[in-house]
Amino acid sequence: MDISSALSALESLSSSTSTSSSGPLNALIDTHFTNAKSRILAGEDPRVVITELQKNVKNCKKEVEKGLKGWYGALGGVGKEVDKAFPPNLGAISDAYADPPLFAEPEAAEALDKAILESLGRRGIWEAVEAMEDETSLSYSPSKRDLSTQLQYILHSIRSSNLQPALQWCTENSSFLSSPPHPSSLPYHLHRTVFRSIKSQREAIEYAKANMMGYLPNQPVLKLITSCLYQSPLTKIPTNGKFNGGRENGFGKEGEGDEEGESEELQKMFQEEFCRRYQWSKEDPLEVTVELGSRGGTLDRIEKARRVMGEHLGNVRKWDELPMEVPLPPSRRYHSVFVCPVSKEQATDTNPPKMLTCGHVIAEESFNRLLKGGRRTVKCPYCPQETSQSVAQRLYF
Ligand SMILES: [Zn+2]
């Protein structure tokens, strides 16, 4: 569980009957008390009515207590997650890292300023960029500023359901987007969203014919076009995110989370292609660093190691590498390594990984060892298949 899921667990309790304002307490006041009062006024025996009321109050109390217990549990969950993400003793941590002092060297201070300036510029927060330019000797390059302004404008347009600026950018950069080795599917996805937002079937098909046929055979253009013929304009096809045949669920109309998700997906795709086009890093480096340290749990781990083994490990700032593993999500693993399952050695340029025809991978040296004795083929150490020397493929990680 992370902070956001702990928070949503807490939020979901606010709408549950046992803890909400319309829950047991309300029922007690609105129903039971009013009921008892009118019964007494109507001449019923007060002793009977009061005894019943007492029973009801007791039951309601139990219900309320049950609800509160759940509520405190969820609240505790949020606290725990916050503690996990942000170690509470930041002061002690910063003391531990104070010698040698952080960012005291002019180069280090400048590098930090640069990272912050780049991050602000990339997000288009120009007021802050200008304030930083005033306070430091750095300046944000005007060409980058133009590009970042363009990126923010197009992302904003996508958010407000106007895909034309994004499509125009794609047209202007079509040769870049379509060139190998990574031809982009961004223009197709933009057109697909426009296609689905067109209400008239005939117009939608005309649009697809004019704009989307070029994406065959890599994209399911024909499936998309024909799907609208099978759908009456009034029915809503549930979307599954990947392939949405329901034109009535088209992007850009009032609606449920799907359009929002689709818009977010398009923004992400666009930003990726834009960054690739101008050779910007895919993500904001400062954001990645901060996220790995906080939510990724790295700082927490380092701090734990320092507390537990600090004296044995010496000054944390002098560590060449972390003495423990930090489990990072797959999207944050940048330097994949391959360890040969036979020799247990890490692959290198001179001893690269090789894939056999069965799909198993071993390091080249292990492969050559298995070839010994003038053999032309290698029997896979993991399955019965044989691979001839010339067919084994070098892999790049
Ligand atoms: Zn095999």
The kinds of small molecule bound in this structure are: zinc ion
What oligomerization state is this entry in? single chain
> Percent of residues in helical segments?
55-70%
The total of beta strands comes to 5
Order of helices and strands: HHHHHHHHHHHHHHHEEHEEE
Query: Roughly what is the average pLDDT, rounded to an integer?
Result: 83
Principal-axis shape equals extended
Question: How is the main sheet built?
Answer: 3 strands, antiparallel
Continuous helix count: 16
Instruction: State which percent range the strand residues make up.
Output: under 5%
Q: Helices and strands: which structural class?
A: mainly alpha
Strand order of the largest sheet: 2-1-5
Distance between the termini: 31 Å
Give an overview in words.
This protein has 397 residues and is mainly α. It has three domains: 3-85; 141-277, no CATH class; 337-397, Zinc/RING finger domain, C3HC4 (zinc finger) (Herpes Virus-1, 2-Layer Sandwich). 56% of the residues lie in helices and 4% in strands. It has helices spanning 3-14, 24-41, 46-85, 90-96, 106-123, 126-135, 142-159, 164-172, 174-178, 186-197, 201-211, 221-227, 257-277, 285-293, 298-313, 364-371, and strands at residues 353-355, 361-363, 377-379, 386-388, 393-394. The chain has a three-stranded antiparallel beta sheet with strand order 2-1-5. A hairpin with a 6-residue loop joins strand 3 and strand 4. Helix 2 runs antiparallel to helix 3, helix 7 (142-159) runs antiparallel to helix 13 (257-277) and helix 10 runs antiparallel to helix 11 (201-211). The chain starts with a helix and ends with a strand. Zinc ion binds at residues 356, 358, 360, 380, 382-383, 385.
